[in-house]
Amino acid sequence: MLYATWSRGFRPGGINRRGDVPPYDADFLSNYELGWKTTFGRVRWNGAIYHQRWNKFQFSFLGQNSFTEIHNGKNANIDGVETDVNYVAGGLTLNAAAAYTNAKAKGNVCGVIEDTTSDCSLSFVSVRDGSRLPVTPKLKGSATARYSFPAWGDVKAHVQGGVAYKGSARASLRSLQLQSGTFVLVDPNEYLGKIRSSTVVDLFAGLDWPRWNIEAFVTNLFDSTDELSRGVNCGSCTRTLIVPGRPRTIGLRAGMKF
Fold first, then answer.
1. Contact 139, 99 (CB under 8 A)
2. Of 160, 51, 167, 155, nearest to 98 (Cα)?
3. Tens digits of residue pLDDT in 155-189
4. What are the phi and psi torsion angles at 206 (to 5°)?
5. Most exposed among 130, 147, 173, 202, judged by the fewest C-beta atoms under 10 Å?
6. How, if at all, do strands 75-89 and 43-55 pair?
7. C-alpha distances out from residue 159 to 89, 105, 139, 146, 217, Å
8. Which pTM value belongs to this model?
9. What CATH code is assigned to 2-256?
10. Residue 24: Cβ within 10 Å count
11. Half-sphere exposure (CA, 13 Å, Cβ side) for 146?
């Protein structure tokens, strides 16, 4: 099957908690996508290529007195490809998936909301034209292998291994900002750094009865540092706080069908 789709969504605008910060407008995302879903014998291959236009995107940060401020940027373009492959033969199942995302701001965003010039000549450029959008890495990928086989009687056994990779990403959209309570310009990326890339490996093994199942697992086998986000506690803070993913976890779980 080949398909093409167009869709559009929005988030409503609203007011900021601080009365001297003006309200923010709604933002709109238009998605143009071409995709395919195919099967070749034991192999299934799906994928999509897309282009997204994000108009007046909303972004937030900690401002004066550590109140969260929500503002509108100019626009952003997001181009990407995602695909997955599946292979099944008897008790063996192989899956692989990957995604490439190129997300960039389009147009300068000025550091003072009243400055509407294209080059921010009345203030300073807070978000540069062409800057990568934060949090989302350019490349993500995963692969899983699972093998199921008869153990004894009506009991089946399975073993499974998986690996997931994600690339690095910016922690902050802004390249320049006024430090809270001062007139000093700082680059938040200098103290935040990047959300680091990571590779996580998971292993599973279990037994399945008609009504019961039991499984032993180890997630994040090599105890990799999986960073989810980076930020600060207050508007004038420069001490970076990292939100980590789950560390190595060893466990046993059981279930019942009813």
1. yes
2. 167
3. 999 999 999 999 999 999 999 888 766 678 889 99
4. -160, 175
5. 130
6. antiparallel
7. 15, 44, 28, 6, 10
8. 0.88
9. 2.40.170.20
10. 21
11. 15
